[in-house]
Amino acid sequence: SPQRLVSVSSWTLESPESLAAFPEPEACRRRAAAPVPPGVVLDPHWGVRMRYLPPPADAGPARGVLVHLHGLGGHRLERHVQPVLRRAGWGVLECVYPLAGWSRLAADASDPEQVRAAGATMAAIIDDRFAELAIAAEAAIETLAAEGDEAAAAGPLLVAGFSAGGNAAPAVAARLAGRERAMSIVMAGADLMEITIASTLGDTGFDGVRDGRPVDRRRLTAAERRRFSEAYLERVRLDGFAVGPHLAGVPVLLVPARFDRVVPAAASRRLGERLGGSEVRWLPTGHVGGYLSLPWTGPRIGRWLLRAAGALGNRDAKPAQTL
User: Fold this and answer.
1) For a tag site, which of 48, 89, 113, 116 has the least CB within 10 Å?
2) How confident is the model at residue 133 (pLDDT cuts 50, 70, 90)?
3) Is the pLDDT of residue 120 over 60?
4) Per 3-state DSSP, what percentage of the chain is helix, strand, and coil (rounded to 5)?
């Protein structure tokens, strides 16, 4: 698409430093760095909708920016993470997950060539979507800082990702590698191929086929699903599976739902394994129940992020012991 910021197949993950290597970064910024007036919702060309909320005037010194990566729904409930941070001097950059233009994917599980092609196609889609979000967030923060916003220019950055936004959170945190960071990820996981096949979220865009005949994607055998995942993971660069090991040292709180079938709990466990060293607080719910719990758990997640931010200057300090 001519409106696409950048094709992300060029992201390489050979070392943490290479996470910042994009093709033609200045051209990307010229497209992305439109003015971001405080409180104005943007609908820029690349499809990432953003809203910036500066800290309240009486919040005291500016501390930094929370990059809030929304899921596909429940935005109002997710915002319960924000008030404790805004009162402490944090600006909030809300980013809505760019799902527009999602492609359908059909592949015969009995044909190795189709499985490999499906893995490569899915990897390209995920890399493109996650890079859009990461570049847009980076450009918005840089623009706000250049225009004199004290929160955007100050201190560390916090990343809070929910559901689909949480799936992209590791890639966004990796792109923001120039600043101290801490991150919370709520009901998200690694291996978007497995999530897409196994999720109970209605039509995920993946059409199962076996021996030339349609089959419900959730009825694929464990071996068939594993082959699709392996083909995808060999190619993808910005899935949490690939990015996670490059975020060593970033404090992370994972909040998965034990009975989640939208983002299967196994995918959340896998993300935790790839990130390594993250704190995990399981919700005793499914995906919907996890969202309904956010009026209570959201402020606790916000307080964890505050403690994590306070510990960034002292790597021996524990950001939090409990939610």
Assistant:
1) 113
2) confident
3) yes
4) 45, 15, 40
Which pTM does this prediction carry? 0.83
Residue 61 and residue 88: Cα distance in Å, rounded?
A: 8
| Choice between 279 and 125, residue whose per-residue pLDDT is larger | 279
Which token pair is 194?
């497995």
Helix (H) / strand (E) element for 70: namely strand 64-70
Could you tell me which of 180, 195, 173 has the C-alpha nearest to residue 68?
A: 173
Output the pLDDT for position 157: 95
User: In whole angstroms, what is the distance from residue 265 CA to residue 200 CA?
Assistant: 12
Q: What is the DSSP letter of 262?
A: T
Joined together, the tokens standing for residue 235 give 């190619």
Q: What are the tens digits of pLDDT across the range 236-260? A: 989 999 999 999 889 999 999 999 9
Provide DSSP, 94-162. Answer: EEE---TTPPPEEEETT-HHHHHHHHHHHHHHHHHHHHHHHHHHHHHHHHHHHTT-HHHHSS-EEEEEE
Could you tell me the sign of the dihedral formed by the alpha carbons of 32, 94, 252, 318, in that order? positive
> Are residues 95 and 65 in contact, defined by beta-carbon separation less than 8 angstroms?
no
